[in-house]
């Protein structure tokens, strides 16, 4: 289900779908960063997972982040770099929100 939710948001094997939540996220992220989408950011991470169909296997599931997974490592690293908390709108929270069928926390 999490892979399908990512595809439904517009992150697909053929790229970001025009007019989708994914395109809105990409546009917003590019404007906020001065014109580009950063590697490792929410849009790039979701597009990579959407292209590969690897959201669920990375540990972002419809019921939460799997213990011991790549997703849990990402969450731990992001929390350490933000004083112990995973920030709303950060990569981990955005990917998890989208994988559960949400809108990513910034929209």
From TrEMBL:
Family of this protein: Belongs to the IFI6/IFI27 family.
Keywords from the UniProt entry: Membrane, Transmembrane, Transmembrane helix
Pfam name, any one: Ifi-6-16
Disordered: annotated span: 1-107
Biased composition, class Polar residues, residue ranges: 14-27, 89-99
Signal sequence segment: none
Entry GO CC: membrane
Full protein name: Interferon alpha-inducible protein 27-like protein 2B
InterPro entries (UniProt xref): IFI6/IFI27-like, IFI6/IFI27-like_sf
Membrane topology: Multi-pass membrane protein
UniProt keyword annotation of Membrane present: yes
Regions of compositional bias (Low complexity) in chain numbering: 53-76
Native organism: Athene cunicularia (Burrowing owl)
Protein's UniProt keywords contain Coiled coil: no
Gene assigned in the entry: LOC113477194
Localization, UniProt: Membrane
């Amino acid at each position: 289900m999490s892979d399908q939710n990512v595809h439904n948001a517009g992150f697909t094997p053929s790229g970001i779908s025009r007019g989708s939540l994914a395109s809105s996220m990409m546009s917003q992220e590019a404007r906020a960063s001065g014109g580009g989408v950063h590697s490792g950011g929410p849009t790039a991470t979701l597009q990579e997972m959407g292209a590969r169909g690897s959201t669920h296997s990375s540990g972002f599931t419809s019921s939460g982040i799997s213990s011991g997974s790549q997703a849990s490592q990402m969450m731990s690293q992001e929390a350490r770099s933000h004083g112990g908390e995973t920030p709303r709108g950060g990569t981990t929270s955005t990917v998890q929100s989208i994988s559960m069928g949400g809108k990513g926390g910034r929209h």
